[in-house]
């Protein structure tokens, strides 16, 4: 009821008021009371206070609130009191009453948390004389949070405490429909040593007491306690009932022994069946007969419990104890728990499911026989949801001599099982402990030889508990902790751990006073925390020395010292409510342990001083390898508050950036040096700052030729910027001065009326790799107008570069109205498209509107006469002209170009400017000449389409192309001019050698496809005029192929079949009987050509077969002959042994031609005369015959033959379809011929 009485009694704390205060001065009196009684976390509101100067004071309404709101309300409070009694140190109240009291919850009492200073031990001061004649509350409402259920009650009574006597009477009754009452009458008189008490508590079912005790069924409960009499003959009785049945009853008595009146005797006898009051599962523990009996006496300095017995179904404790001068002279206590048959017993303790198999306890001592004492206790099969102990033993023995006890105790716990896996790993399976102890009257308790052990950890040493007048009591440890394997504690620490540790702790701890003075000395061996930056530093032995103390002045850490082979840390700290300070110094032997590339020692110094309650001054200095350093001097304001701020300076020196770029894991190489000086103020949580900075760099390089050239030499950057809580970052000044680049920015006004001017200049555009020399400059101005920036800027440079930007841009970039006009050299793109090269100029007329994005760009980009070189394709595009029109989120392309080798192309169609970049492009090719002098020459015509998203790779390239006259040249020599030795490995290879081998293609490198893959669906058709020539072969083919797959994995399929052809060997013409060019998944076509002849019962064949880049030549015959014999028969019609020397020379020439090392006279003439076919032969009679062939249209081929005998013939072929040909013939003697031929390949 203290939360009910406190606000009532608060009304009695009135102080004498100034005589000028009048009773009707309502505002002044209420304000005075509210200010006097309120405090941090407690706000009192008083309405209607009257009668401050009379004996009857009243308050219409009083509320008390904490940080969560009002928790108690009283209405119509009245205090009738005697003010003059206060002068005698007494509080006399005739009546203290309230009509209503509403206690919705208990107050939230705030805590300021611990302070660095120890507060000492103190008891609260209590009032000593109170007399309240009448106390009344008509209606009190208690919310559910107060007692667990909402109740309403009334209270009446009286209270008196004065002159060594006290009395109270209370009558509390529930008023909410549930019958319940507490009636208490009690008094005590010191002089007569008489006491009387009469207590009745009763309530109906579902009452407060049954609910709070969780009685099964929450039955009606009645508790009665009554007793009276002098202390020489006092007796009392009590009964506890539920559901109208008595559950527990007993008697208590206190009096004088009739036989020996000098002894005061006492007794107690309680018993009953409490099983209905407990959950059914606990009835096996209590049984139906629970009893407690005790009797004893007190005589001068002796108190004896002669007989004590507590029994239930599963518990039995009995014994006797005698204390003389507060020290035991007789102890004989024993107890047991369990049923004796091994059946587990469920214990009535907090936590469900706690069981025990059996427990025994025995403590004995009788100084009449011996000063010895013994203790024995055992526990078996203890089980709970969190712990299982199969066997635990506790043993002790020693002596009690007078007022001194000493002895030894030990315990063991085997087979320990803990449900929490991390705790189980830390504790292990077995625990044991032992110690000796001694304690005497007015002496400290000493624990000597303390030894607590687990599997590989221990706590050993001494411990003293002493009583101190000032600090209550203290603990004085002198102990050592040791752990051989820290990994067992990794789970508890939620941190990977390994290694070993030891720690010695000595000093004093005073818990009640909150003070301590301790010394820690120890260390770790090979400590590892799975932290790459820390573990190398802690390898080996690391020693710790720490002194820590807390007293009324604060907390002191001195010394603080950590020493390891690779690092050291020293310092001190003093923590106070005001005036704290700290100093730290650290050193690393070699930074290479933390980061490769950093070599040498590093040091750090830190000092911190508390200037005021909310301000700290912090300085720090870091020194690293290569003269790197960091210096800071800052003031921290409100570092632990809601809005911390920092003011100060910082300076960084990095003469060599390369090793620190590796430390920062930058994706690019970084070399050079830099320095930075920073001054400013900031509020990090509010994202507010005002800074100025100066940075200097020297020869900064990132491995990019253009960027490195721009940052060469010394560059200085000066910057001033600010940001408020409601505005973006505002650059007030920016000045860049470099060897190649200069820039400046200056601003005036606040953010709402900012006026910013800027200039920039690049000394020579040649540094950009665009092939243009001359300076590039830019200047402009941006003014804030309303919520928009008005921008006007110009850019000018060589090669006609000129751009102007005008318009407005919202400060939050949500909208814009900008125009960009001018011209730029296309060669600016060359560094991005190397090795390709673009020349020409682009004229821009663009506009950017809201909302920002590519879709908001409109206008046109035009070019004329531009050129693009494609060295890897051995092509060049000239006279590139056209436009790109931007509108409605699309770019419409219309570009034409002329390849340098001949032909025309046109690219047109729209491309969306959204994230997918969908294209619907068409590419028209007309007579595009493609040539590789060593491999092929052709012309190409057709129409291609590109449809779909370009960025995601969903686009598809499709269409058809037709080849014009095509010549495929068989490599003159398939054997390489150089050789690579298999298995050859280069050691210590110079860079120049490796570069040459890379250029020569002797180093294989994997090239990953770049960019999205586009699907391919292309058809290439060439019905005829595909000529294959080389190595004596001259053939015409026709056919088609399909290109599928993707742009990352091109898959060509198809073939070209023989139309006509022959093979030339030293004037001998062999007609081809078989021929094809086939592509199957690779661009190096597969060739197969076969020429056959029959001489003197021998059929000979010449076969050229294999990839076009390296075909294989074979000579075969039937019957089988060596290749040189076959070649001799083909050339001369005789075997090798019968040929003449001149024929042998011709044979060697034929071999040279077939191997690719010989010349071809007719081939040169055919090219010079622009013929498709030219052949000169001799017949069996020695007559010479010449034949020339020419396509006069795409499907008409004519051939003229003439010999030395004057015979001429004209053949005409008309290709009607791929398989149907019409042929006509006319010779000089008037003979003609006409035929229709159907030809198919199988």
TrEMBL record:
Question: What compartments host this protein?
Answer: Membrane
Q: Where is the Translocation and assembly module TamB C-terminal domain?
A: 895-1242
Which cellular component appears as one GO term in the record? plasma membrane
Q: How does it sit in the membrane?
A: Single-pass membrane protein
What GO terms describe the biological role, i.e. biological process, of this protein? protein secretion
- Which keywords describe this protein according to UniProt? Membrane, Transmembrane, Transmembrane helix
Protein name per Swiss-Prot or TrEMBL = Autotransporter assembly factor TamB
Question: What species is this protein from?
Answer: Thalassovita autumnalis
């Amino acid at each position: 009821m203290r939360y009910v009485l406190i606000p009532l009694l608060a009304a009695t704390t009135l102080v004498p008021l100034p005589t000028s205060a009048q009773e009707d001065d309502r505002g002044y009196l209420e304000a005075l009371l509210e200010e006097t009684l309120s405090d941090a976390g407690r706000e009192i509101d008083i309405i209607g206070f009257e009668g401050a100067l009379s004996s009857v004071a009243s308050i219409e309404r009083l509320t008390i609130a904490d940080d969560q709101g009002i928790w108690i309300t009283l209405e119509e409070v009245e205090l009738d009191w005697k003010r003059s009694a206060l002068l005698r140190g007494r509080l006399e109240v005739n009546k203290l009453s309230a009509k209503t009291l509403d206690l919705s919850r208990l107050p939230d009492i705030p805590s300021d948390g611990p302070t660095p200073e120890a507060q000492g031990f103190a008891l609260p001061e209590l009032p000593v004389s109170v007399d309240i004649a009448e106390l009344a509350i008509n209606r009190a409402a208690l919310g559910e949070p107060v007692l667990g259920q909402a109740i309403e009650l009334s209270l009446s009574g009286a209270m008196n405490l004065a002159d060594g006597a006290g009395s109270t009477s209370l009558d509390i009754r529930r008023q909410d429909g549930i019958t319940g009452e507490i009636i208490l009458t009690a008094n005590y008189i010191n002089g007569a040593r008489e006491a009387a008490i009469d207590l009745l508590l009763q309530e109906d079912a579902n009452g407060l007491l049954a609910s709070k005790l969780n009685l099964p069924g929450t039955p009606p409960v009645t508790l009665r306690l009554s007793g009276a009499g002098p202390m020489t003959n006092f007796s009392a009785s009590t009964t506890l009932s539920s559901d109208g049945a008595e559950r527990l009853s007993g008697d208590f008595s206190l009096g004088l022994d009739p036989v020996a009146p000098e002894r005061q005797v006492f007794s107690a006898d309680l018993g009953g069946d409490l099983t209905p009051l407990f959950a059914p599962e606990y009835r096996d523990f209590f049984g139906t007969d629970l009893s407690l009996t005790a009797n004893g006496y007190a005589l001068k300095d002796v108190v004896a419990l002669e007989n004590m017995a507590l029994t239930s179904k599963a518990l039995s404790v009995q014994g006797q104890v005698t204390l003389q001068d507060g020290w035991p002279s007789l102890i004989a206590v024993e107890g047991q728990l369990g049923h004796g048959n091994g059946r587990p017993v469920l214990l009535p303790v907090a936590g469900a499911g706690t069981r025990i198999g059996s427990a025994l306890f025995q403590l004995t001592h009788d100084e009449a026989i011996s000063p010895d004492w013994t203790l024995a206790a055992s526990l078996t099969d203890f089980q709970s949801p969190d712990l299982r102990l199969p066997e635990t033993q506790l043993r002790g023995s020693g002596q009690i001599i007078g007022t001194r006890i000493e002895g030894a105790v030990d315990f063991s716990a085997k087979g320990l099982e803990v449900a929490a896996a991390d705790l189980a790993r830390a504790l292990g399976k077995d625990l044991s402990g032992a110690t000796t102890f001694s304690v005497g009257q007015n002496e400290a308790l000493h624990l000597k030889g303390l030894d607590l052990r687990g599997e590989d950890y221990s706590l050993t040493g001494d411990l003293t508990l002493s009583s101190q007048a000032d600090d209550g009591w203290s603990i004085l440890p002198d102990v050592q902790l040791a752990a051989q394997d820290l990994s067992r504690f990794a789970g508890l620490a939620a941190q990977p751990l390994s290694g070993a540790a030891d720690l010695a702790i000595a000093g004093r701890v005073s818990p009640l006073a909150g003070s301590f003075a301790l010394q820690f000395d120890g260390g770790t061996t090979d400590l590892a925390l799975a932290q790459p930056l820390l573990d190398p530093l802690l390898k080996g032995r690391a020693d710790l020395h720490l002194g820590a103390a807390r007293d009324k002045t604060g907390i002191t850490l001195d010394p603080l010292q950590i020493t390891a082979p690779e690092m050291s840390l020293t310092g001190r700290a003093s923590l106070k409510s005001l005036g704290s300070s700290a100093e730290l110094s650290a050193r690393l032997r070699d930074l290479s342990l933390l980061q490769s590339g950093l070599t040498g020692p590093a040091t750090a110094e830190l000092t911190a001083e508390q200037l005021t309650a909310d301000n700290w001054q912090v300085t720090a200095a870091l020194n690293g390898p290569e003269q790197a350093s960091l210096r800071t001097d800052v003031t921290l304001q409100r570092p632990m508050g809601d809005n911390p701020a920092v003011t100060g300076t910082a300076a960084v020196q990095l003469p060599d950036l390369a090793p620190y770029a590796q430390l920062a894991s930058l994706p690019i190489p970084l070399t050079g040096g830099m320095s930075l000086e920073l001054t400013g103020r900031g509020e990090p949580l509010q994202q507010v700052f005002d800074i100025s900075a100066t940075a200097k760099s020297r020869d900064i390089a990132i491995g990019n030729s253009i960027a490195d050239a721009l940052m060469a030499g010394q560059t200085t950057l000066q910057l001033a910027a600010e940001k408020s809580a409601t505005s973006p970052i505002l650059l007030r000044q920016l000045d860049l001065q470099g060897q190649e680049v200069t820039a400046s920015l200056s601003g005036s006004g606040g953010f709402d009326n900012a006026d910013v001017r800027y200039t920039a200049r690049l000394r020579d555009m040649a540094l950009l790799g665009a092939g243009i020399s001359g300076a590039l400059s830019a200047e402009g101005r941006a003014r804030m107008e309303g919520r928009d920036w008005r921008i006007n800027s110009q850019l000018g440079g060589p090669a006609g570069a000129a751009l102007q930007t005008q318009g407005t841009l919202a400060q939050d970039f949500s909208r814009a109205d900008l125009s960009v006009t001018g011209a730029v050299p296309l060669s600016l793109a060359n560094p991005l498209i190397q090795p390709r090269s673009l020349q020409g100029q682009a004229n821009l007329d663009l506009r950017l509107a809201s909302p920002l994005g590519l879709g908001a760009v409109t206008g046109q980009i035009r070019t004329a006469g531009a050129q693009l070189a494609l060295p890897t394709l051995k092509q060049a595009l000239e006279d590139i002209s056209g436009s790109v029109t931007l509108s409605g989120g699309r770019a419409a392309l219309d570009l034409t170009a002329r390849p340098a080798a001949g032909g025309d192309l046109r690219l047109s169609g729209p491309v969306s400017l959204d994230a997918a970049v969908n294209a619907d492009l068409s590419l028209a090719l007309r007579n595009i000449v493609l040539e590789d002098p060593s491999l092929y020459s052709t012309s190409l015509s057709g129409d291609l389409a590109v449809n779909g998203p370009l960025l995601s790779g969903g686009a598809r390239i499709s269409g058809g192309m037709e080849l014009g006259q095509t010549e495929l040249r068989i490599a003159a020599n398939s054997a390489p001019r150089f050789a690579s030795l298999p298995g050859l490995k280069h050691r210590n290879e110079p860079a120049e050698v490796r570069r040459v081998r890379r250029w020569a293609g002797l180093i294989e490198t994997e090239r990953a496809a770049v960019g999205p893959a586009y699907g391919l669906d292309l058809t290439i058709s060439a019905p005829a005029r595909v000529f294959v020539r080389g190595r004596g072969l001259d053939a015409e083919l026709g056919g088609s192929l399909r290109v599928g797959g993707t742009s990352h994995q091109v898959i060509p399929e198809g073939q070209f079949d023989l139309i006509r052809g022959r093979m030339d060997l030293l004037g001998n013409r062999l007609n081809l009987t078989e021929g094809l060019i086939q592509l199957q998944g690779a661009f190096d076509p597969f060739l197969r050509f076969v020429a056959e002849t029959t001489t003197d019962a021998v059929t000979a064949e010449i076969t050229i077969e294999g990839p076009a880049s390296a075909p294989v030549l074979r000579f075969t015959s039937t019957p089988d002959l060596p290749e040189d014999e076959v070649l001799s028969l083909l050339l001369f019609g005789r075997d090798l042994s019968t040929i003449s020397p001149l024929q042998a020379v011709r044979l060697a020439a034929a071999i040279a031609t077939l191997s690719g090392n010989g010349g071809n006279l007719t081939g040169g003439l055919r090219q010079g005369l622009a013929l498709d076919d030219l052949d000169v032969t001799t017949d069996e009679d020695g007559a010479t015959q010449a034949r020339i062939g020419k396509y006069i249209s795409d499907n008409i081929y004519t051939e003229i033959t003439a010999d030395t005998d004057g015979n001429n013939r004209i053949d005409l072929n008309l290709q009607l379809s791929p398989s149907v040909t019409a042929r006509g013939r006319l010779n000089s003697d008037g003979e003609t011929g006409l035929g229709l031929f159907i030809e198919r390949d199988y």
